[in-house]
Amino acid sequence: MWQAEHVKARLSQLYPHCSIEILGMTTRGDQILDRALSKVGGKGLFVKELEVAMAEGRADLAVHSLKDVPMELPAGFELAAVLEREDPRDAFVSNDYASLDDLPDGAVVGTSSLRRQALIAARYPKLVIKPLRGNLDTRLGKLDRGEYAAIILAAAGLKRLGVPQRIRALIAPEQSLPSPGQGAMAIEIPAARAHLREILAPLNHMATARAVQAERAVSRMFGGSCQIPLAAFAEQQGDTMRLRAMVATPDGSRIAAAEVNGPAIAPEALGGQAVEQLRAQDAAAILAVCQSEAQDGV
Predict the structure, then answer these.
(1) 296 is catalytic
(2) Which of 115, 184, 278, 285 has its CA 20 to 30 A from that of 4?
């Protein structure tokens, strides 16, 4: 809802004579809170109902957290704009400890992400990682009740919702490479409505759009699944883009990492180069382990 209000405010500034209404909806991804996303349908759970509303003419556009958007949109829909990215880093949140390094052996860490799980397990094998679902208030409430010693959240969400003080430490990308699209918002529209694309064009932040295109290319080439611990993070520096990517087994025992640099105007090609590096490190075997564990319900 914060994201929708933010886009409404931006559009109201651009088009002060336009009437803009928010159609509030609760998606399946918001409703199913007792199981990991990778077990119940993945990223599409957050967007399907919104696409139905657009197809039925009840909504003109949908605002998404980009990391929750499937890599392949259904026929008839497109992403019309990607807004400037907020902080893409992961955040360490705890009432008693200052960082992951300070946690004692056996401490329970909560995360909803297989990516975070793998990266934490690789660096801190003596910590206990448990699933964490729900909206931000629910997750913070579980921490405050002592169910977890610490939780890992997206810094962008904490900052946007006005609780940056809950962040005890920001985790550098070198230690926890972000998810594709993390920190970015995107606006989806019916592809046939070209005039909406023109209306939304001023909201599109080109550097962010190119970066997330490279990141999402990596994910798409590996199937774009929530069942894969995958990270991809691109940064544009002048005319050049730096892309780092990673795939891992859920327990963090095997990790393949890539880093490529190239023209910022060719993000898809950069994503392809990163995937080639990962495949050269036997990423296929890592993905096979992920798929096997997903089928076994691990």
Answers:
(1) no
(2) 115
Q: What is the pTM of this model?
A: 0.89
- Catalytic position from the list 30, 34, 60, 68: 68
pLDDT of residue 117: 94
Here the tokens at position 197 are 């694309």
Domains defined along the chain, listed by start: 1-83+183-204 (3.40.190.10), 90-171 (3.40.190.10), 205-298 (3.30.160.40)
User: What tokens appear for 210 in the block?
Assistant: 């190119």
Mean pLDDT by 10 residues, the chain (298 residues): 94 96 72 44 66 93 92 94 97 98 98 93 96 92 97 96 97 96 97 96 98 96 82 96 96 95 98 97 89 64
Q: Are strands 90-93 and 240-248 parallel, antiparallel or unpaired?
A: unpaired
